Amino acid sequence: MRIAVRRLVKGVVLLGTVASLASAQDAAPKRKAARFRWTSTAPVVLPRSDAEHPVVAVKDPSIVFANGKYHVFMTTAGAKGWGLAYASFRRWEDAPAAPLTYLDRSPIGPGYRAAPQVFFFAPQKRWYMVFQGGDPLYSTTTNIDDPMSWSAPKPFFAAVPDVVKGKDGNATWLDFWVICDDTRCHLFNTGDNGRLYRSETALADFPRGFGKTEVVLEDARDRLFEASMTYRVAGTPSYVTMVEAIGPRGRYFRAWTSDRLDGGWKPLADSLADPFAGSANVAYPGGRWTLDVSHGEMIRAGNDQHLTLDPCRPLRFLYQGVDPKSAGMDYLMLPYRLGLLTATAPNPLSAMCRARPEGGGKRR
Fold first, then answer.
1. DSSP code of 47?
2. Residues 6+ positions from 180 with CB-CB distance below 8 Å
3. The whole model's pTM is what?
4. Which end of the chain has a smaller Cβ tally under 10 Å, C or N?
5. What is the CATH classification number for the domain harbouring 301?
6. Would 23 be classed as within a structural domain?
7. Quick check: helix, strand or coil at residue 18?
8. Distance (Å, rounded) from C-alpha 328 to C-alpha 335?
9. Considering the domain boundaries, does residue 49 fall inside one?
10. Coiled coil: which residue ranges (predicted)?
11. Half-sphere exposure of 144 (CA within 13 A, CB side)
């Protein structure tokens, strides 16, 4: 009899425990779902070697649409080091077969060149390519269709600002990014050290005169790592900036907004569970080929120095990814490819869309 009673009591306690757990789970706040959602293509831009360029990777893309086609500038990597290359195509289905033109054959020349950013600077009617060669460099052309027309590189700074120097006195800056408002141009960069920096110059002085270099965001190293990009949101007073972070399952991007390029940045989608883009919120209909959403660039509404995103059109993001099986390889030899993300649901940026006449804007 005691045994029976004990069993009954034990059963009551167990049921009570389950009920308590269920009640606690119902009462507990649920994990917030990512507000940005994306689908990814398979790799769309691929490395292509020739006798002088045994490349294994394409990385760090910059993309503009001009003269009826996409122009993609990118870093290449391989046994001979880092360099820059260019590809163009009219349709995305043509991208995987697009030939690469290696820019060391242009006046940009050989040597360490990486992480390009390209835009049309309307006041001078000239295209600018910003890239790293140790320090921030730029090259220009009036004809984006001719990859051999880029000028020899020139530096933005005569000396390295003290604020970007490490404890050893060496510069800790990379991944340079220029965006302009109506009166000033701003140069952002990261340093793989948990800091986002900003410098500025007058619009009329660009590309000369950069100074007032300051830290504008700071966090743990892995949470604010590299590859920042900043855009104006069309039809609004807002800007959005994204910075690459390192997570336990690969690289991802966090995002902030501000109403000024020199203003304070407020979190928009800045956590591992609610990122701008990362493994937590990207679907791969053709099969997951990467765990990383790494250094890339949004497809803009225009191509000038304002770097405008259209919140009324689905966001698209050309990014670099790499096969997870390559983990542990020498960094220079990691087989990066470029994939394209497309936003698939309403998100905090699309919520900024304002009504406009039907037919306004054209999807490329």
1. -
2. 121, 186, 203, 206, 305, 306
3. 0.89
4. N
5. 2.115.10.20
6. no
7. helix
8. 12
9. yes
10. none
11. 26
